[in-house]
Write a structure and sequence with these properties.
Elements (H helix, E strand, L loop, with lengths): L1 H14 L33 E3 L5 E3 L47 H27 L5 E11 L5 H4 L13 H12 L2 H11 L1 H5 L17 H11 E6 L4 E8 L2 H59 L4 H32 L5 H22 L13 H36 L4 E7 L12 H27 L3
Antiparallel strand pairs: 1-2, 3-5, 3-6, 4-5
Helix pairs in contact: 2-12, 4-8, 5-8, 8-11, 9-10
GO molecular function, one term: protein tyrosine kinase activity
Protein name: Chain length determinant protein
Keywords: Membrane, Transmembrane, Transmembrane helix
């Protein structure tokens, strides 16, 4: 008993709950010996301290026959959570902390379990039942194609590169963009519905499978929305490749729908190409008419100039004028030589000298007059110099040459546009022909069931966290 008391004293001193008794002197060398209790008190349980929830300790009731300390050694209760024994022979009390009780199922736990069954287990069970019992098998047909464009070299390129290329006015990428929107459009859905009866194909299982089948009473907008579910379009803008996956309740119907999409897409591309070719032909014809009119005007102006100035060929006329000047220059030289010979042997009053001088003056005057035709002096009395006449002739000649070249280019462009209009410059090139499925691959039951389970569990978890966050909020 003494060892137990000493151990209890150490524990109480560590917890700040034991105080030394002032009236009891410590014994240095004596050790109390424990006495064995053989009476009925030996089997009596020891008193225990119980907490009242406010930090104080409450002494448990003692059984009959147990000894209790008198007033000085009684139990002291307070806010410090301990009892101090002060009476002589009173055993010190020990502070015992409360122990957590076992968890018990409460109403909120049952609520969370019920919410889990409603929000997670029930959707999974219903989805699994529908997917494996009611959902009809769907077959897929794959189609892949791209827009090809031919480049046609025009005849104008062979005549000097003044004309532009007539083929491939727009790249395949822009045509594929238009085709991508056309496949998803209501116009294509209407055309294929009139051709294959899409409503009858997709509403055959509307009674047994209302989720994956089409409602026969739906409008064209509903059919277009359903069309975008069963026709998946994959488009690579960089390469211009387009791949389609068409779903239907039978493999033959899926292939027929894919072939109809290919035919209608080809018709649409040909229509766009025909419009472009018609525009190119019309523009080329207008340019040709304008070039012909300009050529006619330039030729008429040149003819009127020749009639007015009595010049058929300006080059020949200039050569004639230069030949006349050369002849006059030669005659003038001969006249000077003759005058020198006569002056050497004749007298000063010899009439031959006067005649030679007169001849020289006439030739010189004629040379001056002929040279004035090439200068700024007026030609004759019409007030126009020969130089101005040459300049006007050259201007008209240049206009005629330019009109002729423009006419040649316009004519070659028109011929190229007509040649392009007679051929197909844009067309669809299918690198994957519509396939015929052998087994149903849709709906993807495992994937859909996993998605339902994932999102149901996420929703239940988020709502549970929100509930506990609001519950723990002060």
């Amino acid at each position: 008993m003494a060892q137990e008391a000493e151990k209890a004293s150490k524990d109480a001193s560590n917890n700040g709950a034991q105080e030394p008794a002032p009236d009891t002197p410590p014994k240095a060398d004596s050790k109390p010996k424990a006495k064995a209790n053989t009476g009925p008190a030996a089997n009596t349980p020891k008193p225990q301290q119980q907490g009242d929830g406010n930090g104080s300790q409450k002494e448990a009731p003692k059984p009959a026959g147990a000894k209790q300390g008198n007033g000085a050694g009684g139990t002291k209760q307070g806010g410090q959570g301990g009892a101090k024994g002060k009476g002589p022979g009173q055993r010190p009390t020990i502070q015992i902390r409360p122990v957590a009780q076992p968890a018990r199922v409460k109403r909120r736990h049952w609520g969370l379990l019920l919410a889990f069954l409603i929000m997670v287990a029930a959707p999974i069970a219903i989805s699994a039942w529908y997917l494996y019992q009611r959902a009809e098998d769907q077959y897929a047909s794959t189609l892949g194609f791209t827009v090809r464009s031919e480049d046609i070299s025009s005849a104008a390129d062979l005549l000097g590169g003044l004309g532009a290329s007539l083929g491939g006015s727009s790249g395949g990428g822009s045509d594929t963009d238009i085709l991508y929107e056309f496949i998803r459009s209501q116009e294509l859905v209407t055309l294929i519905d009139e051709r294959l009866d899409l409503r009858g194909i997709y509403s055959r299982h509307a009674q047994t499978d209302p989720v994956f089948a089409f409602d026969p009473d739906g409008y064209i907008e509903d059919l277009t929305s359903y069309w975008r579910r069963v026709v998946r379009v994959s488009y690579d803008a960089g390469s211009g490749l387009m791949e389609l996956r068409v779903l239907a309740f039978s493999p033959d119907e899926a292939k027929a729908i894919a072939e109809a999409i290919y035919d209608e897409s080809s018709a649409m591309i040909n229509e766009l190409s025909a419009i472009a070719r018609a525009d190119a032909t019309r523009y080329a014809g207008e340019d040709l008419e304008l070039a012909v009119e300009r050529l006619k005007q330039s030729r008429e102006a040149l003819t009127a100039f020749r009639v007015e100035n009595q010049i058929v060929d300006l080059t020949a006329d200039i050569q004639g004028q230069m030949g006349l000047l050369n002849t006059l220059q030669a005659q003038l030289a001969e006249a000077f030589i003759e005058l020198d010979l006569i002056s050497t042997n004749a007298r000063s009053d010899d009439p031959r000298v006067e005649q030679a001088e007169r001849r020289i003056e006439v030739i010189q005057a004629r040379i001056d007059e002929e040279r004035l035709k090439f200068g700024a002096a007026p030609r004759g009395g019409d007030g126009e110099s020969y130089a101005d006449t040459i300049a006007e002739f050259e201007r008209l000649s240049v206009d005629r040459e330019f009109a002729e070249q423009a006419y040649v280019v316009a004519l070659s462009s028109y011929d190229g546009a007509r040649a392009e209009a007679n051929r197909q410059s844009r067309y669809l090139a299918a690198y994957i022909q519509p396939t015929l499925a052998e087994k149903p691959e849709f709906p993807q039951r495992e994937l859909l069931l996993a998605l339902v389970a994932l999102f149901s569990l996420l929703i239940w978890t988020i709502l549970s966290l929100i509930y506990y966050a609001l519950r723990d909020r002060p």
